[in-house]
Design brief:
Blueprint (H helix, E strand, L loop, with lengths): L2 H19 L1 H21 L7 E7 L4 H12 L3 E6 L2 H9 L5 E5 L3 H4 L8 E5 L4 H25 L22 H23 L1 H8 L2 H5 L5 H29 L9 H26 L2 H19 L11 H7 L3 H14 L4 H25 L6
Parallel strand pairs: 1-2, 1-3
Antiparallel strand pairs: 3-4
């Protein structure tokens, strides 16, 4: 065994013992993914169900009761009946309901006339996203009932467009299948940056950096010896996250496992390099942790496409997202889990992460030197 390998193995052993003595690193790698996946996986949903909907029927008859029954049976609504539109409007203003379906006294006579809208719909627009979802669900339920009612009456329903829909990759439109892969990317960003944001700063604060400086270790060997144990720890957290996605949240994995791990390893190296650069520059554990949260977690959460569609952002914000590594990893994970190994998506995003890794490695090398100043 040559001297360089012996020195590297000694540094790896030293950092591994430090990890075992410091439970915070193990908590970041294994406990934090479990907690965040449970909180976001069960607590955050983009699906709207049991929407409180007020239904006003001015003159009950067969048609109006049948339509109201369609909303009663829908999993998307929790209907509440009102005798008059004024009471429903008051409930909407007080936010006790999110929408109103108003069936006037001439509902049945106007049903097939085609001259005027037979129903009135009011939606709370304070939350525009929820308002659009509510409006879409009302329209879908109304159209489905209208087609069924027309067929039962032996009439032809003249629709301007006969649309045949097919949803790819997530046929059930379950937002959890979309959120969980993106959440894994956010968790890996936090794990990687937080694990290494402290490693060099800790040596400076404890006064042990001077001891390392006088050893025969080269700076590259020292940094590699610090990174390798944390890389293994981070990949262990990744395996826990993937296992929870597959077996707890029933997210399908339509790609080879080795490809998922290869892309994850590349992203983990990028995150570790970001944390290491922060640690080298700050030399203070508290400051390094704060900078890691601001530099890695917040941009990843807001600008990666995890929750907010990048194409809906202003163009100047879209430009900034190209500097966020999680943007590329989120796209890769969502593709590998839900669509399969689509190489025109995987390769360009993996290439962007590889370029970031090269740039970050050069910055770390430039800022790392065996001097006390």
């Amino acid at each position: 065994m040559n001297d360089r390998l012996r020195r590297l193995l000694g540094m790896i052993r030293k950092e591994s013992l430090q990890i075992l003595r410091d439970p915070s690193s193990i908590s970041i790698a294994f406990v934090m993914p479990v907690v965040l996946l449970l909180l976001f996986g069960y607590g955050v949903s983009l699906d709207a169900k049991r929407i409180p909907l007020g239904i006003v029927i001015e003159q009950p008859d067969t048609a109006s009761q049948s339509l109201a029954g369609a909303f009663d049976r829908s999993e998307f609504f929790h209907p509440q009946r009102f005798d008059a539109i004024q009471g429903a409007q008051q409930a909407l203003a007080e936010r006790r309901i999110d929408g109103i379906l108003w069936l006037r006294n001439d509902f049945s006579s106007r049903l097939f006339s085609g001259n005027e809208a037979p129903i009135g719909v009011f939606v709370n627009g304070v939350d525009s996203n929820q308002a659009n979802i509510t409006k879409g669900y009302i329209q879908g339920t109304w159209l489905a009932w209208l087609q069924h009612f027309a067929a039962a009456q032996g009439r032809d329903l003249d629709l301007p467009v006969d649309m045949l829909q097919r949803v790819w990759f997530n046929p059930a439109l379950n937002s959890r299948l979309f959120l969980v892969p993106g959440l894994i990317a956010i968790i890996m960003t936090m794990i990687g940056s937080l694990l290494t944001a402290m490693v060099v700063a800790r040596e400076w604060e404890r006064g042990t950096m001077e001891a390392l400086m006088v050893t025969p270790l080269y700076m590259g060997e020292m940094l590699a010896g610090k990174l390798i144990p944390y890389f293994a720890l981070g990949m262990g957290g990744m395996l826990v996250s993937v296992a929870m996605a597959l077996f707890l949240f029933d997210v399908p994995l339509l790609s080879p496992f080795w490809l998922l791990m290869a892309c994850s390893a590349l992203f983990m190296l990028v995150s570790l390099a970001i944390g290491l650069l922060i640690s080298i520059v700050t030399r203070n554990q508290f400051l390094a942790g704060q900078v890691a949260l601001v530099v890695s977690f917040l941009p990843s959460f807001l600008l990666s496409g995890f929750l907010f569609d990048i194409h809906s952002m202003p163009e100047w914000v879209q430009t900034i997202t190209y500097l966020v590594p999680a943007r590329y990893f989120v796209a890769i994970l969502q593709t590998l889990f839900l669509a399969g190994p689509v190489w025109p998506v995987v390769l360009p995003n993996a290439g962007a992460m590889l370029l970031m890794l090269v740039i970050l490695t050069l910055l770390v090398a430039k800022k790392s030197y065996k001097r006390l100043d």
